[in-house]
Structures are given as structure tokens and as C-alpha cells.
Hints:
Elements: H1 3-8, H2 10-13, H3 19-27, E1 30-34, H4 38-50, E2 54-58, H5 83-94, E3 99-103, H6 109-118, E4 121-124, H7 129-142, E5 146-152, E6 155-161, H8 171-174, H9 186-189, H10 193-212, E7 221-226, E8 231-236, H11 250-262
Helix pairs in contact: 4-5, 4-10, 6-7
The structure holds zinc ion.
The site of zinc ion (ZN) has 8 residues, from helix 8.
Amino acid sequence: MDDQRLLRYSRHILLNEFGLEGQVRLDQSSVLVIGAGGLGSAALMYLASAGVGHICVADGDRVDLTNLQRQVVHREDTVGLNKAVSARNQLRALNSTISIDAIQERLAGKALEDAVEAADVVLDCSDNFLTRHGINRACVRHSKPLVSGAAVRFDGQITSFDLRRQDSPCYHCLFPDQADAEEERCAVMGVFAPLVGIIGAMQAAEAIRLLCDLGEPLTGRLMMFDGLSLAWQTVRFRRDTQCLVCAFNAAGAVRREEYATAG
Length: 263
Ligand SMILES: [Zn+2]
């Protein structure tokens, strides 16, 4: 790491728990951020400023005037531009020493599998159940840590699934996908602007913590934030041994056996 970078990241390097080792680890890491909306905006800015060496951002939508109220990575002059490209431009201006890829599509199928496989940590900053479950399945298949955030109205939540670990629950263990699941989209419900910043910044914090083995990961803890009282609540959850996603993949076969033996 050259002098300019040592200086740039000096406030991280000063942290005993982080140090030069943590900064080098971040520099060598690759993070996939799916969704460059409100959550993605905050997460991306901190991941880029903190010095994650490789960031891949995926979004198929275009920047709209109504996004500017909370999606702080975009600018008035990028209205109409693809969100992944708009975000990449902004992140490049923030940190020219890292590499940033923009995928201009809603990730699915093979493109999703490839992007997840190439990442060390995946951030789900999407806004719908179909995408969330697709991301989860890919992360389970490739044993990648998944940091999941959501925000609508005044309600935010965040958790992570460290799918590198055999005992980690997955998103489906927590929220089994049901055809009649109620979808709450910002477009219809409204969303408090700073809420997405709070949850998105937490997602960046959790991703960095997972990458650098800092503190205790959120695995098995769902943190819920109420934007009206500014209060956090934590709910604990476990892996569902009958989960249709994580108990029945290749690694899951071993898990089921373990549980069968454990009785
Ligand atoms: Zn599961």
C-alpha cells in the first residue's frame, strides 16, 4: 500500500481492531451490491470510501426524479441514466483507486450466479421478494455471506446470513417465500428518506465486519428499526432444518445427515 493510500485510510488503520491488516483485506475484497436505490446508495458510498478494492453494482432501472429524495448516490444530472452507471460515476469521483463494475440489468439466472460466485460478500439492496429469494438461492449455492436490508415507510430491518458456515440460516429460513406474500414497495407505500441511509450504512458496516472478521456477525439476529421512535429491536432466529433452500442444496445434504444423526 503506497503512502497516499496509507494516508487516505489512516483513520481506519489507527483502529486497533482494524489496522493495516484490515485495510489490506478490504483492498483485496470484492463486494456485490444488488440494487442502486436508497439502501444501495448509502451502502455503496461507504464501501467505496472505506476502500473495498472491487465493487460490482447491479441495477436495471433508470434514475427517476422521485428517487432523488433518498437515493443519494444519484444526481439531478443523472436522471434518466441507468442506476448502476450513475452510481459507478459517483463512486469513481469519490474513490478513483478502487475498481467498480456496473451491471446494467436486473440480475437473474446465470448472470446472477456468476456475479455471486465472483463476490466475497453480497449485499441485497433490492426492493422485492422475487429478487431477494433469487439472491438468497445463489448465495446458498455458492456459500457466500449475504447482508440483507429492507426499508419501507418508517420501518427498516437488517440481518446477515454467513453462508460460509454450515449452521447459518438463510433468507428463506427467516422469510419462507409464499405466493400470497404481501409486497410493500416504496413506490406505493412511501419511505422516510434517512431510513434507507441508516439501514444501507448498516449493511456496509456488516459487510466490512464480515470481510475483516470484526466483532460478532449479525447471523441469527434480525434487527428492526422504527423511524418514528428511533428505536431498535432485535429478534433472534435459527436455521430451519426443513428449509426448502438451504437444507436441500449440495452442502445441505451434509446438513440433513448431521441433523438425522443428531436425532
Ligand atoms: Zn434456509
